[in-house]
Amino acid sequence: MKAVAYTHCHPVDHPDVLLDLNLHEPHAPHGHDLLVEVRAVSVNPVDTKVRRNADPAGEPRVLGFDAAGVVRAVGPDVRLFHVGDEVFYAGAVNRPGSNAELQLVDERIVGRRPRTISFAESAALPLTSLTAYEALFERMGVPRGGREPVLVTGGAGGVGSVAIQLLRLLTDHTVITTASRPETRQWCENLGAHHVLDHSGDLAAQAKALGYPVRFVFSTTETPRNWVALTDLLTPGGTIGVIDDLHDADVTRLKSKSGRLAWEYMFTRAVHNTPDIAEQHRILGEVSRLVDEGRLRTTLGRHFGRINASNLQQAHAAVESGTMRGKAVLEGF
């Protein structure tokens, strides 16, 4: 089967950073696995981080943690899907990825893709939707009821773009987000943000100037750089949810406010086969329904063409640049 993989860690401008290969097809699905014919994929920051830092020691590793496709075979324990079903999912970081014509994936982390949008538009949604939903409503405990401000940093990124929409659709909270360029600011406003702060300036001062006490902060990017500002603007007893690395950020800044740090790692359920692993199937079902009802928008930002090494290299470079609006998507082999 056709696949795009890497054999050594290289910077994104290296000629062999990603390779077009012909690999053996996956074995017949066992247990809860589906064998999916991949139609479209998207590129996330996790793709670039793994490629830069996890050397496969010469063995080709297929990346890709978002896909939309068609079920071609099912394992003996599968109960949620049938051959021919159109699906979307984010996969698992400890299994071969979606940058291949065929992929095995556990049905319990798979959803039926929205039927009102394309495969490419569907592939833009799974990882970011799961991350945003789990972070806001499970890890951080943002209530569905009530009216209070929630700050989402990096609103034009993939996760931020979904988080804005979920907060507007599922709560009555005031959505505050951040962006630094006119086009990204407009993107956030179009998605429903009530206020857009400039994250290149003094975030704490801007937030306080709005006059809202901020009890929930969802930091989707550049957490170490923004850490002092985020802990300054957080109200006592508040929560900061993070999805990136803290590095040398001083967590003790939360102590005087009895603040809470809430980690979100979307792969936790799949990697650890948690008892509630099928919750991801349910969340993706809700996302699909919201899309088909015309309430949730795809966050496809740029289509990079067919799934091959050259186009994926360009998509990786765009994601690494930190200037993407929405998601980088590729379609077809």
UniProtKB/TrEMBL annotation:
It comes from the Bacteria. SUPFAM superfamilies: GroES-like, NAD(P)-binding Rossmann-fold domains. Residues 16-330 form the Enoyl reductase (ER) domain. InterPro entries: ADH-like_N, ADH_Zn_typ-1, ER, GroES-like_sf, NAD(P)-bd_dom_sf, Zinc-ADH_QOR/CCCR. Keywords: Metal-binding, NADP, Oxidoreductase, Zinc. Belongs to the zinc-containing alcohol dehydrogenase family. Quinone oxidoreductase subfamily. This is Zinc-type alcohol dehydrogenase-like protein. It comes from Roseomonas elaeocarpi.
